[in-house]
Amino acid sequence: xxxxxxxxxxxxxxxxxxxxxxxxxxxxxxxxxxxxxxxxxxxxxxxxxxxxxxxxxxxxxxxxxxxxxxxxxxxxxxxxxxxxxxxxxxxx
Length: 92
Description:
alpha+beta, about 25% strand
């Protein structure tokens, strides 16, 4: 299921029996030519996933949109939480 946010597109799916959950974060060079900036966004998103504890129960793929570079940690967290809430609404 694809959920579009302000800073990234999130693809969420359940974990099948016998499969381990995984998290993929894609930040292309279109977001920033500097690897330092791309890695900063990845670290922030990994920390958000760890804080929320959703990486243990879902398959998650995140594709970052260029305006995420200017976003604060709290804005990224709020956007990701709204994506998880939309996913919960759609599955229930």
